[in-house]
Amino acid sequence: MSSPTARPYGPADKVGTRPALVYEVQKVMKFESELNPQFGEEVAQKAHGEKLFACIQCGTCSGTCPVSHYMDYAPRRIIQMVREGFEQEVLTSSTIWLCASCYQCTVDCPKQIKLTDIMYALKQIAIARHLYPKNFSVPIMAEEFFKQVAKNGRNSEGKLMIGIAWRTHFLNLLKYSRLGMKLFTTGRMGLVEQGIENKEQLRTLLRGVEKTS
Ligand code: SF4
Ligand code: SF4
Q1: Looking at the CA of 70, which ligand is closest?
Q2: Residue 85 Rama label (left phi>0; alpha psi -120 to 50; beta)
Q3: 149 and 169 co-located in one domain
Q4: Residue 16 lies in a domain
Q5: Total domains, the chain
Q6: Of 68, 102, 129, which residue sits at a domain end?
Q7: At what angle do helices 115-128 and 39-46 cross, to 10 degrees?
Q8: Residue whose CA is closest, atom 3 of ligand 2?
Q9: Rounded Cα distance, 159 and 165, in Å
Q10: pLDDT tens-digit series, residues 148-196
């Protein structure tokens, strides 16, 4: 499997005007025994995406995705890796967190594969197993947001910001303290936790969702 860190390098060519374009591609070989052959099935079941096995690797999804150039593995590659059982690589990739859920790939896929739902399923599995890039704020924000809503039925922006900064880059709290004060003093951001009245009803609902997922 080639690494996503492929990049051009090399000294200037003989003419001296243009660097020679040589690509450094790191290959990481994996034995079949290191893969999880059940991973594709697990993801397909969670995302109602059994069609993922019909993928013809045409690359339309990668071509149409507006953020694929920022991803470590483009959507076509993610589907291939899910099917082959590259569980660890998929769940720790930044791709699933950079997906903007725009549904463009799902609309354009000639095999009607629900790629966006597959990305959601992968996020859920990654969070449940605490497998995501360290200090990466997107999954941490999702976790903190859910924690607060599950507890109070509502989200407090101030607590959310503090929670994310605490678990990612704590010094950002200092960096944005002036902006935070402005938002706080103008009533745009609160620090006090607020909640809904019937929290027990919400917990019953969440327990039900947990059972079915
Ligand atoms: S567009 Fe659909 S069929 Fe083509 S590579 Fe992507 S998932 Fe596979
Ligand atoms: S839903 Fe996600 S993977 Fe699909 S095109 Fe949009 S950003 Fe890319």
Answers
A1: 2
A2: left
A3: yes
A4: no
A5: 2
A6: 129
A7: 110
A8: 99
A9: 10
A10: 999 889 888 888 888 888 888 888 888 888 888 898 889 888 878 888 8
Nearest residue to 115 via CA among 100, 98, 103: 103
Cβ contact 108:58 at 8 Å:
no
Which ligand 2 atom is nearest residue 98's CA? Answer: 7
What one-character DSSP code corresponds to residue 2? B
Q: Which amino acid is at 148?
A: Q
Rounded to two decimals, what is the model's pTM? 0.74
Domain boundary among 85, 100, 129: 129
Length of the chain equals 213
Residue 144: exposed, middle, or buried by beta-carbon count in 10 A (0-12, 13-18, 19+)? buried
> Closest residue (by CA) to atom 2 of ligand 2?
99
Query: Are 45 and 116 found together in one domain?
Result: yes
Q: 44: Cβ below 6 Å to ligand 2?
A: no
